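Changelog-adjacent note: as of this version, every example in the card shows the full chain rather than a window. The one below runs 246 residues end to end.
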Amino acid sequence: MPAHFTPETLKFLRGLARNNDREWFEPRREIYERALKQPMLAVVDEINTAMHDFAPEHVRPPNKTMMRIYRDTRFSPDKRPYKRHVSAWWARRGMEKTSGGGFYLHIDPKEVLISVGVYMPEREQLLAIRRWLAEHHEEYRALLGAIVKPRARSAASKMQPPMTHIDAQPLTRMPKGFPADHPADELLRARNWGVHVALPVERALEPAFVSEVVQRFRLAAPLVEALNGAILEASEAVRKPSRPLF
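Full-length structure tokens:
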């Protein structure tokens, strides 16, 4: 049977949301392993198999793709030790320790979140994407339209609810170095690029769960490839030695 989660998964997540402390978690660690970690690793493994066809550079071992349940509380006033969701992030090979474009999935007590794109990239990547968008904004909009506009999707790719734009968290003004009247204004002011969708959490309990995630990942893969291509092109230009003057 295809990998998916169980009602025990949701029961654990709801309990964790109410009791986010070690005193509650540790006696239930075996439940976490059985109801969250093992199913998530199985889900990631099946998604990996499908991604070989459309995003092979993002395929990594399941234990490297699944994210830790522990929160990083070192610099946060919120000292709750655990995340309220189980999640996975498919980074591009070579970008595992940076931002870059990728595929994200998480299951929390209320919803399944599927998100594809670039979120809060580091400074060099941010500039590379903006410079690429300044020249290729029409190409980017076409890629985006193929995902978010129902008429642009094939009948086989019509999924409900449809994917929509992620929160761009835009700057109020055009970033330095770009003209204020640039036709890609809203794209250049953005700090995040991509698409996402929130599904009822009950979808995670269905045998078709992996298939639905894969459909959405596949649909948005060209967008990720374009954004990562911009980053890689800029990185290659920096590494390329300059030609001697004589």
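Structural remarks: Residues 152-156 have pLDDT under 50 and may be disordered.
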